[in-house]
Design brief:
Layout lengths: L1 H9 L4 H26 L8 E2 L2 E2 L3 H18 L4 H19 L1 H6 L10 H18 L12 H5 L1 H20 L3 H7 L3 H9 L7 H6 L4 H30 L28
Antiparallel strand pairs: 1-2
Length: 268
């Protein structure tokens, strides 16, 4: 195990990336645990306010991300400082993406269905960084051998073809497939060859005069969403705590952590 870690993580210079990923996941899990305790009115944790202004944890997250990112660039890859800044960056990224839905909607949707996007983005980010850590390169560059790299025409053509599959998958309304496909070209190929999702740009253009294709696409999307969305929502409920029953406390809003003065409840 030690030899594998040295050869695959330390020697290629991936230790900062591993530390950033570990701190990212740990920060997200700790943050979700604390916010769930605050919502339930348990434990010593409380919302942070300053002068009547509620401070979301995305604020310190942005600061830590900036400090960690710029610090890592300035410190060099193999220094101890780079490891420290990688941890700061991962911690900040975990805080920021935990409130991704708030940034996207410009509204406090932390415990709503819109807030599920935060969990989804965190999982997607974890998958992408883990693939990068495992040695996958964007658009299948790692699958091109040394001879092909020397042949610029083959190299550029390989990149162009992989990018085309990613673009088609995106046009077909398969965002997750397209993103993962940038690192795993086979995933992009599958997404590009299968039917487009109803309502996507590809479906509106290509299936406009093909009612059977529209019907097949709609049926496939229905069965896919019925199976996978249910599993995803269960996972989000476990990780994000969306379906937890929250006791109402006197002077608190319906989420269990609102202001005591009777003002609008804080959804955090």
């Amino acid at each position: 195990m030690g030899h594998w870690f040295e050869r695959n993580i330390v020697e290629p210079g991936k230790l900062p990336l591993l530390l950033a990923l570990a701190s990212f996941v740990l920060t997200f899990l700790i943050t979700r645990t604390i916010t769930r305790l605050i919502r339930a009115g348990k434990g010593p944790f409380r919302n942070v306010s300053s002068g009547g202004l509620h401070i979301h944890h995305v604020v310190p997250g942005v600061v830590l991300t900036l400090v960690g990112g710029f610090g890592a660039i300035a410190s060099g890859r193999d220094s101890v400082a780079a490891m420290v800044f990688a941890v700061l960056f991962g911690t900040g990224a975990g805080l920021v993406l935990d409130e991704f839905a708030l940034i996207l909607h410009l509204d406090d949707v932390y415990w709503t269905d819109e807030g599920r996007k935060s969990v989804e983005v965190v999982v997607l980010t974890f998958a992408l960084v883990l693939l990068t850590l495992a040695g996958f390169s964007p658009l299948g560059v790692d699958e091109v051998d040394a001879d092909e790299r020397q042949d610029r025409a083959v190299f550029v053509l390989s990149l162009a073809v992989n990018f085309l599959f990613v673009l088609i998958a995106l046009l077909k309304g398969k965002f997750r497939t397209a993103v993962i496909g940038t690192l795993v070209p086979f995933v992009a190929v599958v997404g590009a060859l299968r039917l487009a999702r109803p309502g996507s740009l590809w479906a509106r253009k290509a299936y406009r005069r093909r009612p059977r294709a529209r019907a097949r696409a709609g049926l496939r999307a229905y069965h896919h969403d019925r199976h996978w969305d249910r599993a995803m929502r269960r996972f989000q409920d476990v990780v994000g705590g969306f379906q937890e029953r929250v006791p109402l406390h006197p002077g608190h809003g319906p989420d269990g952590d609102g202001p005591e003065d009777g003002g609008p409840p804080d959804r955090r």
